[in-house]
Amino acid sequence: MHFSRIFACMIAVALSVAITHEATAQDRGPVTNLPLPRFVSMKASEANVRRGPSLTHRIDWIFKHQNVPLEIIAEHGHWRRVRDHDGAVGWIHYSLLSGARTAMIEQDMLMLKSKPSENARAVVQLELGVIARVDECDTEWCRLSVAGYRGWAPKTYIWGVRAGETLD
């Protein structure tokens, strides 16, 4: 590998680390001034996830599913560093993301309830990995919508909402 290419890779890695550290330290994105980290979803049905915040960086993998929940952990210009449900991290162009909130079901055969209570009537069972729209959340439960069904799930069984976070 040529020395200038090695040096460019080292700078890109250092930039990524610096951007992530800076954003974490201030709890607000330097570009949007929105909270970091924060959850969003995939607006596009396909998106390249890159090693760094530009088109010149290598594509590490491709998301191929719309509405996947993602966690933004850093910002740089028009790029957002995201983490997925499995913990994989990479950079995506902001235009491929949506502020619409979705969540991924983390427990197989999770019962959505008619009210935010363990004793409430079951509405539907959801399989592990199902993606649902997040309608609202109190401190412990979220009301989800999926395939024409609506019901409540404990936050502990979904990924895409922070513990203690409330949404109206």
Give the neighbour order of strands across the main sheet: 6-5-4-1-7
How many domains? The number is: 2
The helix fraction, in percent, is 10-25%
**CATH H-tier superfamily of the largest domain:** SH3 Domains
Number of helices, where a helix is a run of at least 4 consecutive DSSP H or I residues: 1
**Biggest sheet details:** 5 strands, antiparallel
General shape: elongated
**Which strand-content bin applies to the residues?**
35-45%
Backbone CA Rg:
18 Å
Mean pLDDT figure: 88
- The CATH top-level class label of the largest domain: Mainly Beta
Second CATH tier, the architecture of the largest domain: Roll
What is the name of the CATH topology of the largest domain? SH3 type barrels
Oligomer: single chain
Q: How far is the N terminus from the C terminus?
A: 53 Å
Question: What does this protein look like?
Answer:
The chain has 168 residues and is mostly beta strands. It has one helix and 14 strands, in the order αββββββββββββββ. It has two domains: 3-100, SH3 Domains (SH3 type barrels), CATH 2.30.30; 103-159, SH3 type barrels. It has one helix at residues 3-26; strands at 38-42, 47-50, 59-63, 69-76, 79-83, 89-93, 97-98, 102-105, 110-113, 122-126, 131-137, 141-146, 149-154, 158-159. Strands 6-5-4-1-7 form a five-stranded antiparallel β-sheet. It has a five-stranded antiparallel β-sheet with strand order 13-12-11-8-14, with no helix packed on it. Strands 2-3 form a two-stranded antiparallel ribbon. A hairpin with an 8-residue loop joins strand 2 (47-50) and strand 3 (59-63). The protein starts with a helix and ends in a 9-residue tail after the last strand.
